[in-house]
């Protein structure tokens, strides 16, 4: 199936021109991708291919830009106009033929300009030659679901891998919806990498179970290891961290974000040897225990390249002052508790310390911040681009507003809803560069007094036109407000709204919020991620299916009226990658309406919906390349064994595409159909 | 609809669930509570906890919930425990202010703990006598205040920690109880 743009016969071919063609699948054993092929040619016959490739990339040539849309650069320097025309018209257009014109290194060099893993995935499916070049030159590998593919296969394909990112549990595991031993063990990945890719330098894991044994292996098996980033992981303790500190020579980055880490009292930080001077980034904010502060001060002093340091709550202001004195070039700082044991001269010293740190752009921490100490940071507020006060419940609104007024360069702000609509209005006045706002509930059970409402959001939307990412927990929202927000901020890529009472209608009109969210998806053409809440009927899903063509992730809770809602989404959102649904009336009919869709997605989660065992079995039977996992809580599993009825409703279902078949580490309570 | 109520769902009823009746959807939220997960049992015991909770709602990361729970527990724990430091002592102590009825009992309690006001060995060795100690506290604003100026009830509300100052720093700050 070839569609070619016809070249205009009258046009002179003195300037590089662009033609488009489409290739069909060339390999049988890979998923079927269409690639858009751009043909760029240069009329001079004696062109130097390498410099041409450099120019094409360096000059921001339009062809290279188009690559980010999943197109492929195809350079044909010496063909005549007629030769190109005939090739384009040919039904079996294969770019492989043209590959004989230039060597692999040139192609590889062109691929260097492709940073997105999606683009690299696309070029690798064009033809065998490109597949081989790409696989040997790929350095950064991203695995979005650890059970979609085996580690051995990944590492066999990309032997030159230097950086590996793996994600484990489904997103709703963050909210206690996935049982503890569900899976997501990192050890197989680390073991296989130790055998097959000992040159590994960076490992990033999210929502995985990482044992101390894994960390110990990691610390010893990779001599060039430089960077470890663990996000929302669990299963390890300070013993594992001690191994990393002790054995990773040349470690540059240790970034622990919101992990559950057991404190075994081991002074892991003291395990960094005196010879360690390479640290650039150290984040241990999520650790609960104390660290040896003098060891920390010495470590900071000898790591002259340290640019990011995020302290945990156990670090007091006195220690912070000493640390800042030794690291005046910090760019990112997590302040620790921000209270002092002995008040006496802390304030003045703090002021002086911050005065010297004029590189700080990113600030967080403030766990127990007392108001008087906040004033010490006013001097750096005006250069901040990122401010995270979402773990600082002690800061009162008025102090917050005083601080925010100085932060006119702020791009990212995370706060608690105690900021109130009044505080958000102050943000809207001061922070004209704001791109991302997250407002978290200060009362985590949502039972407190109304803190932020739709007014705060509307104020932000009119004051901050660059806003493109939002996470907003509030007590109420109106359609009118959402419509206004959609008009003011058409650039949203992430829009996550959480109304604390999950089925609350528009309090003024008492209507569902369909129109409000409809306005958002219609206006924000680049929307990639959306979370819904409030009272919603099937109509909102009709809008989403119709307008949200770039949507990749959708989170639904307590919404919809019938199967039609889910079907609108599955049939409409062509770029959908992750769909997660809880407590919504979607059943087997919706699940089975468009089964082919799930192979184009990473995963589907449905809990407390109307899907039955029979529906899951049917899906599994139709789609052998999906794993249809059903999670059975204790009370149900006995019932299901005694009464294995296809009519039995399934409480939690997780469906994902995979090359491996059912996983072999599934616990008893997970059934794969 | 009734079958959903009978199902063994790990959910509690929601506030405003009567709004559901107008939706006419076949799914309704159960009105009565069922079991919750362990996070729901640790609510700070306020009266508004009558509003029941749903598992995993609001969608806040467990890590964040646990951090806040820790902070909340510290500030609302029954008993008003505050740290007491004494200059020169290697470690601090904690006392429950609610246990004392007034400043006199507090002083006696501190004396018993630190042995600082009586003519004990410590004070004789240091060459101090009882009057060279001052009890101070840090209030909500972070200021260092002398204990004894405000009524007791006001004091225990605003006291965040205690500090027993001795020697030259204490001179001139003697309490006059």
Automatic annotation (TrEMBL), chain A:
This is F-box domain-containing protein. GO terms for cellular component: nucleus; SCF ubiquitin ligase complex. InterPro entries: COI1_F-box (IPR041567), F-box_dom (IPR001810), Leu-rich_rpt_Cys-con_subtyp (IPR006553), LRR_dom_sf (IPR032675), Transp_inhibit (IPR041101). One of its GO terms (molecular function) is auxin binding. It comes from the Eukaryota. It is found in: Nucleus. Residues 102-143 form the F-box domain. Its main location: nucleus. Pathway: Protein modification; protein ubiquitination. Pfam families: F-box_5 (PF18511), Transp_inhibit (PF18791).
């Amino acid at each position: 199936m070839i569609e070619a743009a016809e070249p205009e016969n009258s046009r002179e071919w003195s300037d590089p021109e662009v033609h488009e063609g489409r290739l069909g699948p060339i390999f049988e054993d890979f998923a079927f991708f269409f690639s858009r092929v751009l043909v760029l040619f240069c009329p001079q016959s004696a062109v130097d291919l390498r410099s041409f490739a450099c120019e094409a990339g360096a000059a921001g040539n339009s062809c290279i830009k188009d690559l980010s849309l999943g197109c492929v650069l195809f350079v044909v320097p010496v063909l005549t106009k007629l030769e190109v025309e005939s090739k384009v018209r040919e039904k079996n257009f294969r770019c492989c033929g043209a590959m004989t014109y230039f060597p692999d290194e040139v192609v590889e060099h062109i691929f260097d300009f492709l940073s997105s893993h999606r683009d690299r995935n696309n070029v690798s499916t064009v033809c065998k030659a490109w597949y081989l070049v790409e696989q040997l030159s790929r350095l950064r590998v991203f695995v979005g679901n650890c059970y979609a593919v085996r580690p051995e296969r990944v590492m066999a394909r990309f032997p030159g891998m230097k950086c590996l990112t793996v994600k484990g549990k489904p997103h709703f595991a963050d909210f206690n919806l996935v049982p503890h031993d569900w899976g997501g063990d990192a050890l197989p990945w680390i073991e296989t990498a130790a055998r097959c890719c000992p040159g590994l330098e960076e490992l990033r894991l999210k929502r995985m179970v990482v044992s101390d044994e894994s960390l110990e292996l990691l610390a010893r098996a990779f001599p060039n290891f430089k960077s470890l980033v663990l996000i929302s992981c669990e299963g390890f303790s300070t013993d594992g961290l001690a191994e990393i500190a002790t054995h990773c020579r040349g470690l540059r980055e240790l970034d622990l974000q919101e992990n559950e880490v057991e404190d075994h009292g081991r002074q892991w930080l003291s395990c960094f040897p005196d010879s360690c001077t390479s640290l650039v980034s150290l984040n241990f904010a999520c650790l609960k225990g104390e660290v040896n502060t003098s060891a920390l001060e010495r470590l900071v002093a000898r790591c002259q390249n340290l640019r990011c340091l995020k302290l945990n709550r156990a670090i007091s202001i006195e220690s912070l002052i000493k640390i800042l004195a030794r690291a005046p070039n910090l760019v990112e700082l997590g302040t620790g508790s921000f209270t002092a044991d002995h008040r006496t001269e802390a304030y003045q010293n703090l002021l002086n310390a911050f005065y010297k740190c004029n590189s700080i752009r990113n600030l967080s921490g403030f766990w127990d911040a007392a108001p008087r100490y906040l004033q010490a940071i006013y001097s750096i507020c005006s250069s901040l681009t990122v401010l995270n006060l979402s773990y600082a419940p002690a800061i009162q609104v008025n102090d917050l507003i005083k601080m925010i007024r100085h932060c006119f360069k702020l791009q990212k702000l995370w706060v608690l809803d105690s900021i109130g609509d009044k505080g958000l209005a102050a943000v809207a006045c001061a922070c004209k560069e704001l791109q991302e706002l997250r407002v978290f509930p200060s009362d985590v059970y949502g039972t407190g007094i109304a803190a932020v409402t739709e007014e705060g959001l509307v104020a932000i939307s009119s004051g901050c036109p660059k806003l493109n990412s939002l996470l907003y927990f509030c007590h109420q929202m109106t359609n009118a407000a959402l419509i206004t927000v959609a008009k003011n901020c058409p650039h949203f890529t992430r829009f996550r709204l959480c109304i604390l009472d999950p089925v609350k209608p528009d309090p003024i009109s008492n209507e569902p919020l369909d129109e409000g969210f409809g306005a958002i998806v219609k206006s924000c053409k680049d929307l990639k991620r959306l979370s819904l809440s409030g009272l919603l009927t099937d109509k909102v899903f009709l809008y989403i299916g119709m307008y949200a063509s770039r949507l990749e992730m959708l989170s639904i809770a307590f919404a919809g009226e019938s199967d039609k809602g889910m079907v609108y989404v599955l049939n409409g959102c062509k770029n959908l990658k992750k769909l997660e649904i809880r407590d919504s009336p979607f059943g087997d009919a919706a699940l089975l309406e468009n089964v082919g869709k799930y192979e184009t997605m990473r995963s589907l989660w449905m809990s407390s919906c109307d899907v039955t065992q029979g529906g899951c079995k049917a899906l599994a039977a139709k789609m052998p390349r999906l794993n249809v996992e059903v999670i059975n809580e204790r009370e149900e599993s006995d019932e299901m064994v005694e009464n294995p009825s296809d009519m039995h409703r399934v409480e939690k279902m997780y469906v994902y595409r995979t090359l491996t078949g059912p996983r072999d580490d599934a616990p008893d309570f997970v059934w794969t159909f | 609809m009734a079958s959903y109520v009978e199902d063994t769902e790990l959910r509690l009823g929601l506030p405003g669930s009567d709004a559901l009746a107008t939706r006419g959807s076949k799914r309704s939220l159960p009105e009565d509570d069922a079991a919750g997960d362990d996070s729901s049992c640790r609510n700070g015991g306020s009266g508004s906890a009558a509003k029941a909770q749903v598992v995993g709602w609001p969608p806040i990361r467990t890590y964040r919930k646990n951090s806040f729970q820790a902070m909340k527990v510290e500030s609302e724990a029954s008993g008003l425990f505050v740290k007491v430091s004494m200059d020169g002592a290697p470690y601090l102590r904690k006392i429950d202010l609610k246990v004392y009825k007034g400043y006199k009992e507090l002083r006696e309690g501190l004396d018993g703990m630190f042995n600082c006001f009586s003519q004990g060995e410590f004070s004789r060795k240091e060459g101090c006598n009882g009057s060279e100690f001052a009890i101070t506290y840090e209030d909500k604003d972070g200021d260092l205040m002398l204990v004894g100026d405000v009524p007791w009830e006001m004091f225990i509300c605003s006291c965040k920690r205690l500090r027993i100052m001795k020697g030259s720093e204490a001179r001139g700050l003697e309490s006059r109880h």
